[in-house]
Specification:
Rossmann fold; 13 strands; quercetin 3-O-glucosyltransferase activity; 488 residues; 7-stranded parallel beta sheet; binds uridine-5'-diphosphate; Putative UDP-glucuronosyl/UDP-glucosyltransferase; quercetin 7-O-glucosyltransferase activity; alpha/beta; transferase
C-alpha cells in the first residue's frame, strides 16, 4: 500500500518579518555548494512568480541560477501557495500583504480569469508599495523579473523606472499558439479564441499544430480571455526581455518565428532544473518511499504516472486510467493527488479489491512523488504525463519516453510536439479509454517503436548536457543575460 502525504503546505506563511522583511538576513545553506561563496555583484533582483506549482518551481530555479552569478535575490510572493523560505536561506522573501484568503478562493482553474484580473488590478498597488520600499534600501533593485501573467506590473515598473524582464514558464512552441488568437486577429484573420474548433486541420503559420490543439480553456468567456491575452501580449512586448526555460537546440525554428512578432531579446537558458541537484521547490511533500520502491525493479520496467499539480479528472476517467494500468500488466508508480478526482478525496472510487489484487502486486500509489528523482531512476522506463512543460522537460532531460494525456492550455501543444515533431512518445488522441491506454503502454514500454522513442529522446538528452556546458547554447545565453542585466 502507498504512503500518505500528510503535509500540504498551502497555507503556510513565510518566516519573514513582515514589518521589516527585507532586512531579514539568512545564513548560507551549507548544502548549497553551487551558490555558496559566490561573490555578490552588488545587484539585487526581485522575482514575482505566479502562485501555481508549475510557475513557482521554475521561477525559484531561475532565481537560484542568477544568485549563483552574484545577484542577491528577493522573492516577492503571495501568501497563498507561498514558497518555503527555509529551502532558500540565501534569498529574502517578501510577502505581498493581503494575498491569502482572496487568492485561496480563486486558485481553482475555473477561476483563472478572475484570478488574473485580480492580481493585475487589486494587487498592483500593494506590489508598488513593496517595490518602492525595496528601491529605497541601500542595494536598491536592478531589475524586476515577473511571470508573464503579471502584466499589470509593467506600469508599476515604468512609474518606478525599473527594468522589467518576463519569464514564460512554457516552451516557445506552445507560447506561439497561446498568443495566436491575438496575433492572428491583429493580422486580420477571422479566427479568435471565441472559436472552439476541434478539427484535425493544420493551423496556418503554426504547423504542425492542429485546430484541436489550440488552447481551449474558458470557452464560456471568450471575450474575457481575449482581453487578458491582449494585455499579456502587450505586457510582454513592453518588457525588456524574455527568459525561457528551454534550449536552442530544441526550438531554434520556433524562436526565429517568435522573434518576428516579439522582437525583444530572448534568453534561452534552460533546462533550469539541471543547473542544480534536484531542487526543493515543491509546494507539496514528496513521498521519498517511491524511490526505495523503484530500487526493487529492473531497469526501464516501471511506468511512472502523474498528471501534475492542477489537472482533475472525472470518476469515470479515473476508472479508465486504473483499468488501463491494470490490464497493461506493467509495473507502475502512480501519483494520485488528493482532490484530483472529482467528488473523491483520494482513492475511494477504486473498485473493491483493486488495491489488494492489482496495486499491491505490481503498483505503488502515492500522493506526490519526488518527480525529478523518479524520472532519473534507472527503473523508470516511461512517463504517462499530462504534458505540463516542466514535466515534459524533466522527462526529456532524463531520456524517458512519454505517453501524453493533455487537458488544457500548453499541455495540448507539448503533447503534439512530443508525438509528431520530436517523436519521443505517443499522444492518447481519444482521452482516457482503457483499450487505447493499454496499447499505448505496450507501445512505449515493450514494442520496437518504444525503443525508437527512447533512442530519439536519449539523443536530445545528450544535447541538453552539451548546451549547459561552457560554450553550449544555454551556458552562453546565461552569460549574455547576466551582462544584459548588469548593463541597466
Ligand atoms: N511534481 C512533483 N511531484 C509529483 C508531480 C509533479 O514534484 O508527484 C512536479 C514536477 O516535477 C514539475 C511540477 O510538479 O516540476 C509540475 O509542473 P508541470 O509544468 O509539469 O505541470 P503543472 O503542475 O503546472 O500542471
Amino acid at each position: 500500500m502507498s504512503n500518505i502525504i500528510s503535509t500540504i503546505d498551502f497555507n503556510s506563511t513565510t518566516t519573514c518579518n513582515q514589518s521589516n522583511p527585507t532586512h531579514q538576513t539568512h545564513p548560507h545553506n551549507p548544502m548549497d555548494t553551487t551558490t555558496a561563496g559566490k561573490p555578490s555583484n552588488g545587484h539585487r533582483l526581485v522575482f514575482l512568480p505566479l502562485p501555481y506549482q508549475g510557475h513557482v518551481s521554475p521561477m525559484l530555479q531561475l532565481a537560484n541560477i542568477l544568485h549563483s552569478k552574484g545577484f542577491s535575490i528577493t522573492i516577492l510572493h503571495t501568501l497563498f501557495n507561498s514558497p518555503n523560505p527555509t529551502n532558500y536561506p540565501h534569498f529574502t522573501f517578501l510577502p505581498i500583504p493581503g494575498t491569502g484568503d482572496e487568492l485561496h478562493s480563486l486558485i481553482d482553474l475555473k477561476n483563472i480569469l478572475r484570478l488574473l484580473n485580480y492580481i493585475n488590478a487589486d494587487l498592483v498597488d500593494p506590489i508598488r508599495v513593496c517595490l518602492n520600499r525595496l528601491m529605497l534600501e541601500e542595494d536598491g533593485v536592478a531589475c524586476l523579473i515577473t511571470d508573464v501573467h503579471w502584466f499589470g506590473t509593467q506600469s508599476v515598473a515604468d512609474d518606478l523606472i525599473l527594468p522589467r524582464i518576463v519569464h514564460r514558464t512554457s516552451n516557445i512552441s506552445s507560447f506561439r499558439s497561446f498568443v495566436a488568437p491575438v496575433l492572428l486577429r491583429d493580422k486580420g484573420s477571422v479566427r479568435g479564441c471565441d472559436e472552439e474548433v476541434k478539427s484535425e486541420a493544420s493551423v496556418s503559420r503554426l504547423e504542425p499544430l492542429k485546430d484541436k490543439d489550440l488552447p481551449k480553456f474558458l470557452p464560456n468567456d471568450p471575450e474575457g480571455k481575449y482581453k487578458i491575452l491582449e494585455l499579456t501580449v502587450k505586457g510582454i512586448k513592453q518588457a525588456r526581455a524574455l527568459i525561457w526555460n528551454t534550449f536552442k537546440e530544441l526550438e531554434e525554428h520556433e524562436l526565429e518565428a517568435l522573434s518576428q512578432d516579439f522582437p525583444n531579446p530572448h534568453f534561452l537558458i534552460g533546462p533550469f532544473h539541471k543547473f542544480f541537484p534536484a531542487s526543493s521547490s515543491s509546494l507539496l511533500t514528496q513521498d521519498q518511499e517511491s524511490l526505495s520502491w523503484l530500487d526493487k525493479h529492473p531497469p526501464n520496467s516501471v511506468l511512472y504516472v502523474s498528471f501534475g499539480s492542477l489537472v482533475r479528472v472525472e470518476e469515470s476517467q479515473f476508472l479508465e486510467i486504473a483499468w488501463g494500468l491494470a490490464n497493461s500488466k506493467q509495473p507502475f508508480l502512480w501519483v494520485v493527488r488528493p482532490g484530483s478526482v472529482e467528488g473523491s478525496e483520494w482513492l475511494e472510487c477504486l473498485p473493491d479489491g483493486f488495491l489488494e489484487r492489482i496495486v499491491e502486486g505490481r503498483g505503488y500509489i502515492v500522493k506526490w512523488a519526488p518527480q525529478q528523482d523518479v524520472l532519473a531512476h534507472p527503473a523508470t522506463g516511461g512517463f504517462w504525463t499530462h504534458s505540463g512543460w516542466n514535466s515534459t522537460l524533466e522527462s526529456i532531460c532524463e531520456g524517458v519516453p512519454m505517453i501524453c494525456s493533455p487537458s488544457f492550455g500548453d499541455q495540448l501543444l507539448n503533447a503534439r510536439y512530443v508525438s509528431d515533431v520530436w517523436k519521443i512518445g505517443v499522444k492518447l488522441e481519444n482521452g482516457f479509454e482503457r483499450g487505447e491506454i493499454q496499447s499505448a503502454i505496450k507501445k512505449v514500454m515493450a514494442d520496437e517503436e518504444g525503443l525508437e522513442f527512447r533512442n530519439k529522446i536519449v539523443n536530445i538528452k545528450g544535447k541538453v548536457n552539451f548546451c549547459l556546458k561552457k560554450g553550449g547554447s544555454s551556458y552562453s545565453s546565461l552569460e549574455d543575460l547576466v551582462n544584459y542585466i548588469l548593463s541597466f
